[in-house]
Amino acid sequence: MKAKLGIAPIAWWNDDLAELSDDVSLEECLRQASEAGFTGMETGRRFPMDMNELGPILKRYGISVCGGWFSGLLLDGDMEAEKDRIRAQMDFFIAAGAPCIVYGETARSIQGIRSAPLATKPRLSEEDIRTYGRKMTTFAEWCADEGMPLAYHHHMAAPIETEAELDLLMRHSGKALHLLFDTGHMYFAGGNLLRVIDNHHARISHVHTKDVRKTVIDRIDRKKESFLDAVVKGAFTVPGDGSIDFLPISNDSRPMIMKAGLLWKLNRTRPSTRRWKWPARDMLPSCSLWRRRNIA
After folding, report:
1. Does pTM surpass 0.70?
2. pLDDT exceeding 70 applies to what percent of the chain?
3. Are 263 and 64 in contact (CB under 8 A)?
4. Between 261 and 129, the higher pLDDT residue
5. Alpha-carbon distance 202 to 175, whole Å?
6. N or C, fewer C-beta in 10 Å, the chain?
7. Strand 178-182 and strand 101-105: pairing?
């Protein structure tokens, strides 16, 4: 099985901070992605969620839908209500031939609250996570049975942020709940990237290869500044431009690499119409991942 190489529209516009990115159209985003060699794109706020409208646009640029965020509320919510909430997106993704829906837990999350310091993120006990893991497993099983698997996105300022929290969720959930491994969010949270892969590679179905600038995140006052403050200050960047060494990750030969969809991610931090450069994309031919896995 080949890995697929895609990108997320957050490299062009930010769905949480619209003021940063009112200058790039959907078609310009797709054109640049295609020109850079990407064949997949996650959905974002400028994507029409109707394949009759979106399909011809994607075809023009040789791009397919390779995932997209769902703002889940299952931590505090009702199972049947959550099924109703995801139904329309699920039907759209099935029609688009997408490999998964990216589930991000937004119940109790402070990731979108500019005034909420990082230190005030929600904290769950192991018993809380055990209960949550059972609910997520049931929900993931239902989604898979309906034809659309989930990939769970650990995230800064969310209930499952740290390596320890992720370990507990994986321990207390079933194999139907796949994992989206985000290098940037896990590094920001203080996790060991290779250890996370060691522990959970069998569950990883989707990878966000997001980079971070350590000099920026080290200066963030987590008692006063929020996740969105960190975004605006430039905590995240394109792979190869930050502090993460991607070579040990990309050279890994575990099954995760064989089955995962790889997503280049960059959090947009300022308005600009300049052409993006992709240093890590140019780096890939020197990696054994590129040579052995024939990423396309």
Report:
1. yes
2. 83
3. no
4. 129
5. 9
6. N
7. unpaired
Name 212's bridge partners.
236
Are 47 and 21 within 8 A, CB to CB? Answer: no
pLDDT at 58 over 70: yes
Q: Give the Cα separation of 21 and 30 in Å (integer).
A: 15
* Tokens encoding 209: 């290869």
The angle, 0 to 180 degrees and rounded to 10, between the axes of the packed helices 126-145 and 79-96 is 40
pLDDT in tens, 141-163: 999 999 999 999 999 999 999 99
Question: Alpha-carbon distance 163 to 192, whole Å?
Answer: 7
* Rounded Cα distance, 44 and 228, in Å: 18
| Token pair of 49 as six digits | 């969620």
Q: Are the C-beta atoms of residues 13 and 29 closer than 8 Å to each other? A: yes
Cβ partners under 8 Å of residue 44, min gap 6: 8, 9, 10, 13, 15, 68
Number of residues assigned to the chain: 296
pLDDT of residue 279: 42
Read off φ and ψ for residue 229, nearest 5 degrees: -60, -40
CA distance 272 to 44: 18
Helix, strand and coil content of the chain, in percent to the nearest 5, comes to 45, 15, 45
Token pair, residue 173, equals: 């959930």
Q: Which two tokens stand for residue 44?
A: 């974002």
Residues forming a β-bridge with 265: 210
How many CB atoms within 10 Å of residue 64? Answer: 17
